[in-house]
Write a structure and sequence with these properties.
With 113 residues, the protein is α+β, with helices and mostly antiparallel strands. The chain contains 2 helices and 5 strands, in the order αβββαββ. Strands 1-2-3-5-4 form a 5-stranded antiparallel β-sheet, covered by helices on one side. The mean pLDDT is 96.
């Protein structure tokens, strides 16, 4: 997997507004927010995207979702938010490191694309 900005954030080489950190993941505010609350939840393990997950990553994938829900409650938006994994360039993925978007703070339309 190529070196990414997220790997540098995990190592502390690039500052981030961190809202959660544990041994498996990091959650921080997006620098280009698409909603009033826009947090990225990323694994510390280098995984390119959802398609690169395998059975050994089942607990990690679930952990990312649970952390996102916890962060939503912590930030006061637990009653309405969206979780999004973008996968690949055509899916809107801009950084080749798995990340979960937590979007909230305004009414989110549907369909999203």
């Amino acid at each position: 997997m190529p070196e990414t900005v997220f790997a540098k954030i995990i190592r502390g080489e690039i500052p981030a507004r961190i809202v959660h950190e544990d041994d498996r993941c990091l959650a921080f505010h997006d620098v280009q927010p698409q909603a009033p609350v826009h947090v990225l939840v990323i694994p510390k393990k280098p995984v390119e995207n959802v398609a690169a997950l395998d059975g050994a990553d089942e607990a990690l994938a679930g952990h990312l979702v649970l952390v996102a829900a916890e962060v939503a409650r912590k930030l006061g938006v637990g009653d309405g938010y969206r979780l999004v994994f973008n996968c690949g360039r055509d899916g809107g993925q801009s950084v080749d490191h798995l990340h979960l978007h937590l979007l909230a703070g305004r009414r989110l339309g549907w369909p999203p694309g």
